[in-house]
Amino acid sequence: MAEEKKPAAKPTKPKKKVKPYEKRKYCPKCGPGVRLGEHADRRSCGKCGYFESKPKA
Ligand SMILES: [Zn+2]
Fold first, then answer.
1. pTM of the full predicted structure?
2. Alpha carbon of 16 to ligand 1 centroid (Å)
3. Which of 13, 33, 34, 50 has its CA 20 to 30 A from that of 4?
4. Tens of pLDDT along 16-36?
């Protein structure tokens, strides 16, 4: 019985580190489906006017 060599583990791509604040967020007021608009220092909802400031890293 031939020994089956396991294929060498493929080099896995380094996981992209996603900052929590890079993720698109939905408006907590309007609910899922309404995304907050991206701004340099904040996110805002164009629907209800909700906005939140981004914490500085
Ligand atoms: Zn909203």
1. 0.51
2. 29
3. 13
4. 775 554 567 899 999 998 999
Residue 53 confidence (pLDDT) above 60? yes
User: Is 3 contained in some domain?
Assistant: no
Question: What is the span of the domain harbouring residue 48?
Answer: 23-53
Total of domains in the chain: 1
Residue 47 lies in a domain: yes
**Is the residue at 9 inside a domain?**
no
Report the separation in Å between the CA atom of 33 and the middle of ligand 1, taken as the mean of its atom positions.
10
Ligand 1 centroid from CA 39, angstroms: 15
Per-residue tokens: 37: 């608009």
- 55 alpha carbon – ligand 1 mean position (Å): 20
